[in-house]
Amino acid sequence: MQIQAPKGTKDVLPQDSYKWQYVEGKIRELCRLYGISEIRTPVIEHTELFLRGVGDTTDIVQKEMYTFKDKGDRSITLKPEGTAGVVRAFLENRLFNETMPQKMFYLNAPVFRYEKPQAGRLREHHQFGVEIFGAASYETDAELMLLALNLLKELGLEDLELKINSIGCEKCRKEYNKALYDYLKGHIDSMCRTCQGRFERNPMRIIDCKEEHCKEICKGAPRTIDFLCDDCRAHFEGLKRCLDACGVKYEVDTDIVRGLDYYTRTVFEIVSNNVGAQGTVCGGGRYNNLVEELGGQPLPAVGFGLGLERLLLVMENTKAIFPDPPRIKVCFAAVGDEPKLRAFSLVQQLRENGVSAEFDHMDRSMKAQFKYANKLEAEYTVVIGEDELRDGSAKVKNMADGIETMVMLDEIVDFFTE
Fold it and tell me: Do 291 and 134 contact (CB within 8 A), yes or no?
C-alpha cells in the first residue's frame, strides 16, 4: 500500500515553492521597514503553556491540540498558535531587560490544529505573525493593522475589509460577563454541549461558537463596547482616530471576540471575500495580561497572525500576479566523455560566479538534451562535442531568438558573467 500524507497536511511542490518564497521575501522586506526582527521558537512546547496562555475553555485547547506524553512522561503539545511560544521565549531569555518596545516576527512557522480541513485551513498550516512587547499605546495597534494591510495590498489583494472591536479589560469585562450571563441563562438548555460547559466558567467564549444555533442565540447578546471603562473607551477611540488619520477604512464589528482567552481591548480581523465561507485572512489584537499570566511582570503586548496557505489561496483566487518562476540561465548539451567532463567543469565555474547553470545527468542523446533545455526554459544552451572540444570553442544559442554565437571555451564564464 502506498503511503500518503496525513489528512489535513499538504506538500509544497517544487513548481509552487517559488510563490511561497516570493511572499516570504515581501514579508521580510516589510518587517525590515518597520524595524521588526525575526524570532524562531520550537514546534513543540509543554502543554501547560497553552492551558495557561490560550485558555482551557477555548476550542483550540478543548478540541484541536495535538498533545502527547514523551518518554519522560511529560505532556508535550505541537504548537497550535504562535503567540504563547513567543511570550515564553521572551520571558525565558529575559528580553524584558532590553529596550522597549521589543518588536519581533515569526515566518513560515508550522502550526497544528485538529479540525476539519477547509479552504486555506489545514491541520498543519504555516503562519506569519508579529508580536510587539512593552507598548501600551493605541498607535501600536494601528501600526500593526497598517503593516498587515500594506503587506496584503503589496501582494495584490484589494477586496479586503478591516474589522475592529474592543473587548475591554478585566475591569470592564466583569460587568459585561454579568450582563452576558444574564442574557444567555435563558438559552442554556438549547445551546451545544461545549457552550453549556463554558457558560459558568467563561460565557464570552460562547460568542465564538461556530454552531449555527449558538450563533443565532448570540445575535441578540450584549455588546462588549457598551460596557467599556473610560480607559478602554479612550484607547478604542484613539485607535479609530489613528486609522482615520491614515485614510484607512474600517468597520466596527461587535461580533469579533477572537478565539483565544488572552485578548484584551483591541481585537481585529482582515477579511477577504475570495476565500470561501471562512474569509478571515489575518487576525489579532492586544493581550496586556499574557506576559504576567505566564510568570512575568505586567507588560502590555499586541500582535497578529496570518496563515500563509490561506493568503496564497486568496492571491490565487483574486488572480494576484506572481513573478515568473526562476529560470536556468545556461544549459549545457554534451555527448562523449571528454566533452561531458569539460561541460561539467564549466557548469561548476558558472555557479561559483553567480550564474545558474545545468548539466545533463541522465546520459541523454544530444536531441533529448535540447528537449531537456526547453523543458527547463533555459535562456541559453551551450553545445560541446568532440569537434568543439578540439577547436576550443562552443556554440551558444539564445533560446528566445535562436541566434547562435561561437564562444571560446576558455571565455564561456566571462561571456555569461559580463
Answer: no
Domain with CATH 3.30.930.10 in the chain: 14-169+229-317
Distances in whole angstroms, Cα of residue 3 to Cα of each of 10, 45, 115, 123:
14, 28, 22, 18
Spatial strand order in the sheet of 75-78: 44-46, 75-78, 67-69
CB 290, CB 87: distance < 8 Å: yes
CA atoms within 13 A on the CB side of 206: 31
- In CATH terms, the superfamily for domain 330-417 is Anticodon-binding domain (3.40.50.800)
Q: Does domain 14-169+229-317 have CATH number 3.40.50.1820?
A: no
Q: What is the pLDDT of residues 104-131, one digit of tens each?
A: 999 988 999 998 887 777 999 999 999 9
Q: Is the pLDDT of residue 230 over 90?
A: yes
pTM equals 0.88
The DSSP secondary-structure symbol of 392 reads T
Write out the residue limits of the CATH 3.40.50.800 domain(s) in the chain: 330-417
pLDDT band with cut points at 50, 70 and 90 for residue 278: low
pLDDT score recorded for residue 164: 97
Q: Alpha-carbon distance 166 to 256, whole Å?
A: 8
Written in H, E and C, the secondary structure of 352-379 is HCCCCEEECCCCCCHHHHHHHHHHHCCC
Where is average pLDDT lowest: 2-11, 122-131, 238-247, 250-259?
Answer: 250-259
Whether the upstream peptide bond of residue 14 has omega within 30° of 0, thus cis, is no
